[in-house]
Amino acid sequence: MYWIGYDIGSSSIKAALVRASDGSVMDITQHPKKEMPMITLHKGWAEQDPELWWKYVCLATKELLANNSISGQDIKGIGISYQMHGLVVVDKALQPLRPSIIWCDSRAVETGEELFQSAGREKCVSHLLNAPGNFTLSKLKWVKDHEPGTFAQVYTFMLPGEYIALKLTGECVTTPSGLSEGILWDFKENKCAEWLLHAAGIAPALVSDIRPSFSEQGNVTQKAAAETGLPPGIPIMYRAGDQPNNALALNVMEPGQIAATGGTSGVVYAISDTISTKEHTRINNFAHINHAPENPRIGKLLCINGTGIQYSWMRNELARGLDYPTMNQMASQMPIGSDGLLILPFGNGAERMLGNRDRGSCIRNLNFNVHKSSHLFRAALEGIAFAFVYGMEILKNDGVQINSIKAGNDNLFRAEVFARTIATLAHSQINIVETTGAVGAARAAAFAYGDFNSIDEATASDRIQHTYGPDAREEKYREAYQQWKSELETYIEH
Question: Over the range 71-97, which residues count as b (16 or more CB within 10 Å of their CB) and which as e?
């Protein structure tokens, strides 16, 4: 018997098949094979058709079953991970009223700031641990303010993963974790922040039924079974946004543990038991999937836009066809600190951790008589690593302790210069684990059902691919970081 996990991304839909007996991975697939399109009617807008997600869920499911010669009857149930902060609105017939406004759409920034002011800044921070920002509720208010005809037909609103669950089960269900990522969970009252909905002029009745992240959230209908190849009646047992789910996939569940991601952008997701924040303007705080009032588990999320995209740009524009392993090897031959060459990697839009400033990337101290392409590659990796460390200092200022760091085996963490720099400056070992969000979702569903007694047990078949510990030459790393940090702070001020 098997569990199936979905990861509903903005680029593709991934599906994973996991054995119910031991949590080991049978297979993973994705659709489409190229990136899904986005609708960009105006600058800063990003929308997708929710029905397109469903189409690719169906294709991925059928492919997964066919490729492994498995009958749908062999599937016990479903877990879902999804792109965070998106908005889907449906009518009474449960049909989408407009394309989804997805995570990277920035149209609701001003709306969120106005709501922050009108609802009360102090109350938002103390009860929500966040400003409304450009998140799901602000996007819904934007629809109310700018598309009143559409808003008048809204029966309920939901996140992308909740829409896929609706397509599978016919039920509209949300979770405390989902509401917190939409900035609608009141941590003091332990319930939906109806006062914020009233401030936005939105009826609380539009909120779906609330169930725990690990719980039965509906059963596959006959119609969904016919479209996917899954058996009717099997349950959805788990659902979470991609960052908390990535943490689960890496078995990052307790205070002091950190899940790091080094893809196009970089994310540090730290677990804390502190229900307060001093850094709400630079980080976000979400209810982690195992959060409970009597046992708080807050996911403090810090995002760095300009990380892997910079190294990718360098490969495409400067490396003349070299692949990443070759660039990484060349970088490793250069001294710590790249002979004084510094790179600030912030060239992918406004950086929240820098006060929402969009200052661009910057190369400092380039000497044509000293520096070679190998220096540039090392300075790029060091600059990105330093940005992670700078972000971790912000998290520490918000009460986070760092006891361990885990990361998926993605591009940046394959570079020893990058990983070793973080490990040394954070005084922490970094374990690189080969896993995915879809795998994590499948295992979480199996745990919720009772096939495993703990997430430890569910992830026991994972193997650590690499381990990076601190380098003995910490003083050299520290000196290079302090020079970089000083340059950054001067750059921000001017």
Answer: ebeebbbbbbbbbbbbbbbbeeeeebb
Nearest to 265 by CA among 347, 160, 328, 198: 347
Q: How far apart are CA 153 and CA 130, in angstroms?
A: 29
Residue among 386, 379, 420 nearest 489 (CA): 386
Count CB-CB contacts under 10 A for residue 349.
Answer: 16
At residue 350 the predicted structure's pLDDT band, cuts being 50, 70 and 90, is: confident
Could you tell me which of 12, 167, 3, 23 has the C-alpha nearest to residue 72?
Answer: 3
**Sign of the four-CA dihedral 455, 456, 461, 466:** positive
pTM of the model: 0.93
Show the tokens assigned to 205: 């009745």
In this structure, what token pair is assigned to residue 103? 């995570």
> Could you give the CA distance from residue 122 to residue 277 in angstroms, rounded to a whole number?
11
pLDDT, tens digit (0-9, with 9 covering 90-100), for 8-30: 999 999 999 999 999 999 999 99
| Contact status, residue 471 vs residue 416, Cβ threshold 8 Å | no
Q: What are phi and psi of 266, to 5 degrees?
A: -115, 140
Report how far residue 211's alpha carbon sits from residue 284's, in angstroms, rounded to the nearest whole number. Answer: 23
Q: Retrieve residue 52's tokens.
A: 């397109």
Whether residue 215 has pLDDT greater than 90: yes
Give the integer Cα–Cα distance in Å for 452 and 313. Answer: 43
Token digits of residue 120: 């009360």
The answer to whether 177 touches 81, Cβ cutoff 8 Å, is: no
Please, are residues 471 and 444 in contact by the beta-carbon 8 Å criterion?
no
> Is 90 exceeded by the pLDDT of residue 64?
yes
Beta-carbon contacts of residue 313 (< 8 Å; ≥ 6 apart): 347
What whole-number distance in Å separates Cα of residue 49 and Cα of residue 56? 12
Tell me how long the chain is: 494
173-174 and 209-210: which strand pairing?
Answer: parallel
State the residue for tokens 């745990």.
447
pLDDT for 493? 79
**Angstrom distance (rounded) from CA 265 to CA 17:** 27
| Closest listed residue to residue 130, CA positions, set 87, 175, 189, 183 | 183
d(CA 265, CA 311): 11
Whether 414 contacts 434, CB under 8 Å: no
Q: Over the chain, what is the mean pLDDT?
A: 95
Tokens in use for 393? 């200092």
The β-bridge partners of 173 are 209
